[in-house]
Amino acid sequence: MSRAFTKEPDEGEAVEDLPDRPLSPHPNLVTAQGLAQIEAAMVRAQDELTRAQASGDRTALAHAGRDLRYWTARRSSAQAMPAPESTEKVQFGSTVTIARDDGRRQTWRIVGEDEAEPNEGTLSYVSPVARALMGKSVGDVVQAGPGEAEVVEIR
Asked: Which pairing describes strands 141-144 and 122-124: parallel, antiparallel, or unpaired?
């Protein structure tokens, strides 16, 4: 019988077939801070798993196990990248400021996927804007969303 027609687990029932979190197909490049974040997430997931085992909470156990598998896979595939040695061109780990054609200025640090928080100033290296910025120098113009933007600073 198709899984689409099976009963969903009730509250408190096992969620034994909880699907794993998807893993990115891109190389798992990380900054030193990103590697530390992954390791901290592994510790949190292990702590949650231990608590779930102690309490017998099968739903929490399934969620914690899934998170631990995800963070363990991300840690094993992490490729720590050195800090940029130059500010001549945008590269992984650079902090770049752009001036958009609508007058906005935005600054982001180019980081790994798991550490990216655009609202907090970090942008995944696989995002369209970051990909457009890679290898560019101050004064270069890139396509950024529906408009253009000029690279005005690289740190």
From this structure: unpaired
Q: Selecting from 3.90.1150.10, 3.10.50.30, 3.40.50.720, 3.30.70.980, what CATH number does the domain 95-154 have?
A: 3.10.50.30
Q: In angstroms, how far is CA 138 from the centroid of its own chain?
A: 26
To which H or E segment does residue 144 belong?
strand 141-144
Residue 113's nearest CA partner among 131, 97, 89, 96 is: 131
Quote the CA–CA distance of 103 and 22 in Å, as a whole number: 37
pLDDT tens for each residue of the chain, 155 residues long: 444 444 445 554 445 668 999 999 999 999 999 999 999 999 999 999 999 999 999 999 999 999 999 999 999 999 999 999 999 999 999 999 999 999 999 999 999 999 999 999 999 999 999 999 999 999 999 998 889 999 999 99
Q: How is residue 109 written in tokens? A: 């640090």
Domain ranges of the chain: 26-81, 95-154
| pTM beyond 0.85, yes or no | no
Q: What is the DSSP string of 52-83?
A: HHHHT-HHHHHHHHHHHHHHHHHHHHEEEPPP
